[in-house]
Amino acid sequence: MLMQGARYISGTSITLADGWSLERLTPPSRLFGANGLRTGPDGRIYVAQVTGSQISALDVVTGRLETISAKGGEIIAPDDVAFDSQGNLYATEVMDGRVSMRGADGRTRLLRDDLPSANGITVHQDRLFINECRVGGRLMELDPNGGAPRILLENMAMPNAMEVGPDGMLYYPVMGTNDIWRIHPDGGEPERVAGDLGVPDSVKFDAEGFIVSTQVASGQVLRINPRNGDRTVLAALTPGLDNCTFVDGRLFVSNFTGEITEILGGGATRTTLPGGFNWPLDMTVGDDGNLYVADGTYFYRLRPDGQGGLQTLGMLFTPGYPGFVRGVTAVGGGEFIVTTSGGQVSRYRPASNESEVLADGLDQLYGVAVAPGGAVVAAEFGTGRVLSVGSGRVEVLATGLNQPLGVAFAPDGACLVSEAGGGRIVAVAGSGASGVDTVADGLEKPHGILVRDGVLYIVDAGTKTLVGVDLATRTRQTIARELPVGAPPGVTPKPLRGLPPFSGPQGPFSGIAAGPDGTLYLSADAEGSVMALRLRES
Fold first, then answer.
1. How far apart are CA 50 and CA 297, in angstroms?
2. Is 535 exposed, middle or buried (0-12, 13-18, 19+ CB in 10 A)?
3. Do 428 and 446 contact (CB within 8 A), yes or no?
4. Which of 191, 224, 370, 532 has the least CB density, counted as fewest CB within 10 Å?
């Protein structure tokens, strides 16, 4: 029986079954990641959000955010933005190899879809320049009317966000070689400006003509003299910085977490927008009782009471980080088995910055669990398979599944798998058998699953519910409705193809975990929070 009274989380009415309570351990994310920044003609900061699939505009005076290009819209994976003199917005879409233009009239059109890892973008005297952030990337001038690109440079080692300086030269960072270069917009020989940095991923200029550059690996914001390469540290922040921009002389920088920070004088900073999750994916509870959350680019620890906030244990540029982490299960002693969007199953030890690849070359891995016998079992979404990894080999337990996502084990040792495309939970027979037994059907899009005390808990991202199924009697209870999981109402997300070598194809996954006291933890990916659901003692 469902309670008549509704609970409201971030504007969403969540209805809970009798006896259950809900607590949000982390606040919703204001931005789902923050990548490219550009000050628009209206004085607002335009923020590109790759994993959030949207572009937002931030008024730094009022703090108001407005969605300019929404998730599910025509711009799929914006990474950087620029404006021409007519107020047209240009966006690179790094995971789809595209460049789009959103006109001042609000209409969007695709300019190119054949530019792998299209990333850095700038407009100079209404000339449009972009580069490709990949090994072997190119720097080019694009014709907005569809003409062939004019290539300035090739075989670059991951260039990124760029800008034309006061001297008329085009300045660009190269992440793979850890330096900043410049070239004339008409072409010619490039010149190295500064090196041995902290992996620079953006270049802008202050009012005095000095370079300001964010360093993704070190977290530093540097001011660099373009004439001799001398540098000073304006601020030391956390790794994951992505871009910067000026508004009336004030400097703002972005972070993968969605945080926007203003850089003040003397090394001081001020948070303009707090960071949070890009989209919390799978979760697990360690033997220390803490909750561990896979957020792709980041791996976090969170106390069960939510106090102390998120503790970053590793991120994409941390030594030993296994890659874009998606599935996770704790195996004790501070070790975790993880799956990555790059197709790896790895053993991860964040305390020592080490990871060991157990299997590689797989197709869109998601949920992972450890069998009673110690084998690692993972869902391979791309091929519809369930795999067992152990003793240096990969065994196929099941084939022909329709978008398998979550994995869990029943008390009798049966391997349970959620079929997002089939709307059901199945028990896998193993040894490559194509036949499976249906445990629960009538679901819409089941994601994370968990078994505790004989009850199978299912996050159904399609119906936005948490369902409990008694495995002995097969009776079913809807524990929560209108959860902020899956796509927002009326939105059909477009797939993100990934960004090699950092990640493969990316997609949503609403995970679930349980604490030793029976608390259920849920990744509310639609709002970027983690929730705790507890059954009160009668």
1. 12
2. middle
3. no
4. 191
- Strands 311-315 and 298-302, by their bridges, are antiparallel
Rounded to 10 degrees, the C-alpha dihedral 365/348/35/169 comes to: -110
- Contact by Cβ (8 Å): 223, 231: yes
495: DSSP letter: P
Nearest to residue 505, comparing CAs of 418, 414, 371, 381?
Answer: 381
The pair of three-digit structure tokens given for residue 433, joined into one six-digit string: 């058998």
Tokens of 466: 């948490």
CA distance 241 to 257: 9
Q: In what order do the strands lie in the sheet with 376-380?
A: 365-370, 376-380, 385-390, 393-398
| Distance (Å, whole) CA 185 – CA 155 | 18
Q: Contact 201/214 with Cβ under 8 angstroms?
A: yes
The rounded distance, in Å, linking the Cα atoms of 456 and 512 is 11
Instruction: List, in sequence order, every beta strand (DSSP E) within 177-318.
Output: 179-183, 191-195, 204-205, 211-214, 220-224, 231-236, 241-247, 250-255, 260-263, 269-273, 283-285, 291-295, 298-302, 311-315
pLDDT tens digit at each of 538 positions of the chain: 222 222 234 445 899 999 999 999 999 999 999 999 999 999 999 999 998 999 999 999 999 999 999 988 999 999 999 999 999 999 999 999 999 999 999 999 999 999 999 999 999 999 999 999 999 999 999 999 989 999 999 999 999 999 999 999 999 999 999 999 999 999 999 999 999 999 999 999 999 999 999 999 999 999 999 999 999 999 999 999 999 999 999 999 999 999 999 999 899 999 999 999 988 999 999 999 999 999 999 999 999 988 999 999 999 999 999 999 999 999 999 999 999 999 999 999 999 999 999 999 999 999 999 999 999 999 999 999 999 998 889 999 999 999 999 999 999 999 999 999 999 999 997 655 557 999 999 999 999 999 999 999 999 999 999 999 999 999 999 999 999 999 877 777 777 888 777 778 888 899 999 999 999 999 999 999 999 999 987 5
